[in-house]
Structures are given as C-alpha cells and as structure tokens.
Design goal:
Layout: E1 2-13, E2 20-31, H1 34-46, H2 51-58, H3 63-75, H4 87-92, H5 95-134
C-alpha cells in the first residue's frame, strides 16, 4: 500500500461577480497493491468487512471499484476460491475452528449463489430490453429444430 499526494488546480467562480479564479488543492490517495486488494476481497468474502466499509476506509471513490476487484479475484483460480481440505486437516482442528470455518464457507457459498442469481436476472433483463428495443428475437424458441 502506497500513499501519494496529488496536486491539482480547481476552477472557482464567484457566484456574485462571476469572476473566475484558480486554486491549487492537494488530495491524498492510497494506492493499493494487488496483494492488498486480494486480502481486502478475502475479508469481504469471509464476512469480516463490507465493501462499503473498505471503500470508506481507503478513500475509494466508487464502490464499483471494490466490486470489480471481487469479480476479478473470485474468478481467478489462484486467489480466493474455497480451499479443498482433507479429512486429516479437519481432524487436526478443534471443533470450534471447524464450525467457524464451515460457517464461513457456507456464508461464502450463499454469497456466490446470490451473486449468480443477480447475474442471471441482469442477463434476463438485458435480453428482454434488447428484444423490445430492437424488435428482434434473441432467445431460442423451445421446440425449434436445429
């Protein structure tokens, strides 16, 4: 994580006189490395923090940036998929740890299922709008021959 300061000019117009002037402003920005973003996404998926909480904490302008990280890192095999565990690994852990871990996995699975439902609904809505707007059939009709 790097912090950098950006200096920019801002145009200001006096509401009474209409006179225009320029002021220099400084803005501190936090630049997150790939690894930092992956850790934040992991926290969201484990239910430790919300996307909005992370957006506010790090001064991220748009919540969509955080959601794009989630989409990027969840789809990558190496990053945030549920870990496969053997019975030996589970046997080594205490019952409380096992329960906590299984609850976290269940919570993540539920979130993924909810995201898939939203995605399916978005695609359905997009197809409906395209069919209505452009007056063309997009969906394949049932019973048609190929």
């Amino acid at each position: 994580m790097r912090t950098r300061t950006k200096t920019y000019r801002e145009r200001i117009q006096d509401p009474e006189t209409g006179e225009i002037s320029w002021e220099f402003r400084e803005e501190k920005r936090i630049s997150l490395e790939e690894e930092d973003r992956m850790q934040l996404v992991a926290q969201i998926l484990r239910g430790e923090r919300t996307a909005e909480d992370i957006r506010r904490s790090y001064g991220i302008v748009s919540i969509n940036s955080v959601y794009s990280w989630i989409g990027k890192y969840v789809s990558q095999e190496k990053s945030l998929s549920l870990e496969e565990q053997t019975e030996e690994d589970m046997a080594k852990k205490s019952k409380d740890d096992q329960i906590r871990e299984l609850k976290a996995q269940l919570k993540q699975a539920r979130k993924e299922a909810e995201l898939e439902k939203l995605r399916a609904h978005a695609y359905d809505t997009m197809i409906n709008l395209a069919e209505e707007t452009f007056n063309i059939p997009i969906r394949k009709k049932s019973g048609t021959k190929q």
